[in-house]
Write a structure and sequence with these properties.
Largest sheet: none
Helix content: over 70%
Number of strands: 0
Structural class: mainly alpha
Number of domains: 2
Shape: rod-shaped
Order of helices and strands: HHHHHHHHHHH
Length: 251
């Protein structure tokens, strides 16, 4: 190599572009030197790809863990519901027996002969209500609230017995309606996964009196039918009144 070539090749730029300056360099260091920028960029791209793959794998593992935890929570919740509902049918039977005893006391007009309130059975209903869905909770709540209201009316010292008796049979029919409609749900029958509250109509009350308390077996001339008819008229008289229109004279 001449003196001029040595001077030219002393420049780093010249070494990279002038083939004559490659004399004396090994091919591998020369390759790395000439392509170091491209090699660095490629390494950076590969590192980024590896990072993306790792992050996605971690996200996938976290999602699977969340799904497993959710499944476990749902399974535990279902087990709690089953454990809570397993005692409900027996509690409902106890409540219905209480209502039948109260009906007999109403029929004989001896309130003091009615059975003791089913406090333990109602506690079972209240405990189970904490584990069911919102709609079923409302049905259970209505049963508990109506039961407490019913007993409060009977034990109220400021109400005359005759007034208590006039309302009592309708309250019993309403409680029987609220009690019996919970049986399929309490037994966890197929398709009875929830039981939404539905306010009883007069038809529901009459059905409960006829079937739950055996009114259908009584003769038409039975005095108890007259008492029940009177109680129904008293309970629903305001709902059955028709408000006169502008073109109709009031009575």
């Amino acid at each position: 190599m001449t003196r001029l070539e040595e001077v030219v090749c002393s420049s780093d730029v010249a070494k990279a572009v002038v083939s004559a300056c490659d004399v004396g360099r090994d091919w591998f260091p020369a390759f790395l030197y000439d392509w170091q920028t491209l090699i660095s960029g490629g390494a950076a791209v590969l590192a980024a790809i590896a990072t993306v793959i790792y992050v996605r794998r971690q996200i996938g593992l976290q999602q699977k863990q969340i799904e497993l935890q959710r499944d476990q929570y749902q399974q535990e919740s279902r087990q709690k519901v089953k454990a809570a509902l397993i005692r409900v049918p027996h509690a409902l039977v106890e409540i219905q027996k209480y209502l039948e005893g109260c009906f007999q006391a109403w029929e004989s007009e001896k309130l003091e002969d009615r059975p003791h309130p089913p406090a333990d059975a109602l506690k079972v209903i209240m405990d189970a209500a904490a584990y069911v869905d919102d709609e079923s909770f409302e049905s259970m709540r209505q049963l508990v609230v109506h039961s407490q209201t019913f007993e409060s009316r009977l034990t109220s010292s400021g109400k005359r017995p005759v007034n208590v008796l006039s309302d009592m049979v309708i309250d019993l029919a309403e409680l029987s309606y609220l009690t019996l409609r919970l049986f399929d749900f309490g037994r966890m029958e197929k398709g009875a996964t929830t039981i939404a509250y539905v306010k009883p109509t007069r038809a529901d009350i009459e059905h409960a009196l006829s079937w739950d308390f055996g009114l259908r077996l009584r003769p038409e001339s039975s005095s108890i039918r007259n008492r029940i008819d009177l109680a129904l008229r008293m309970r629903y008289r305001h709902r059955e009144e028709v408000t006169p229109t502008a073109n109709e004279p009031s009575v």
